[in-house]
Predict the 3D structure of the following.
Amino acid sequence: MIPTPTPEQSKDRHQHFAIKTSNARRKTLSTRAILIGLAINVLLAVFKLIIGRMSGSLAISADAWNNVSDAASSMVSLISIILSAKPADEKHPFGHARFEYIASMVIAIAMLIVAFQFGRTSIERIISPIDLTTDVWTFVVLIASILLKILQFIIYRKWGRKIQSPILLASSKDSIADVYITSGVVASAILYAAFGFNLDGPVGLIISIAIGWSAIEIILNAATLLIGSRPSKELTLFLQEKILKSDPRILDMHDLIVHDYGPGRVFATAHVELDSQELFPEVHLITDRIERKMKRDYGINLLLHAEPSYPHDEAYTELLGRLDNAAKEIIPNAVVHSLFLFKSQDGKPIAAFDVDIDDKTTIDNKTFFSKMQQKMVTCDPNLNLWITIDREYTSHLTEESPSSYFTLNDDVSI
């Protein structure tokens, strides 16, 4: 049911997810990267403010204050790293790692303020341009700024990916945006020095828009993570691969759910299928070993639910194939799993199973239930279907109550 990842996919996912980093190590690497970035931003801000004042260029001054904003953001990042590294406590049993998401939003808000202020001033400069002064030191500082920002981008992105830090990754985006911004300032200065074209106001406005756009992206991404978003396809495939290959007795898996409580605090649950002939103690040991391995090797808190499968039962296998084919005739990408066969108290045969459906599918549940029943009538007119539709993380049961079939307590019947 689950596609086997290619070697290239596996290699790429290992680069992103197969690295377990302790909180102490994450704190050390993050702090080191932020301090380097802070030093670069302070240095650039000082020199650009001087050059901006001497030349009268609004674009250079805007770029300088952008670096001041970056320096302030670095200070916020340092504080957030210290707070997010705090261990779990009574009020926060899942730790404080999500504080990094909040900090990245603070960084973005500071960027928005800078963008608004210089956007307004740039419009004024477009309406009433002023003469500029450029010399060799203007170009030296600007080119040095570009090189230092490229270095900063490389450091932030490399270490951000290594420890999966949203703060460093957000800062890396800000750094590469600064490279484009300063390049525009250099082009503007060259045009003014060589041809007398004064593009200071328009370039300043473009810089402001670029800063604001980058800030909005960071805010939206952080807000999505805080609210709770779907796991990335890379992470999902990585977990599937690791679970399926962890033990040859794992026949299949489904119902994978991932909860992200911040970098280094990933919790996941999944259902795995094993041969029904496996002894219960052995099943427990298999799932327990996989859970421990995922925690030890990848820092992922995994909880597995074992389900029986009947690969040696020809009637079961044939019915499962019929159900899967019937579901695919209705919805091509549907997948049937978790099939259980039993009889109600009055002897009616029942097939209970789940159907995974893409949540973008437009067909409604009632229609699917009806079509599925019609297709299976030719297979066994006496067979009653108890269907659970899984659209991502939402389950929809058939309207017919399972309590009409047999009597169990609510927890078991559902």
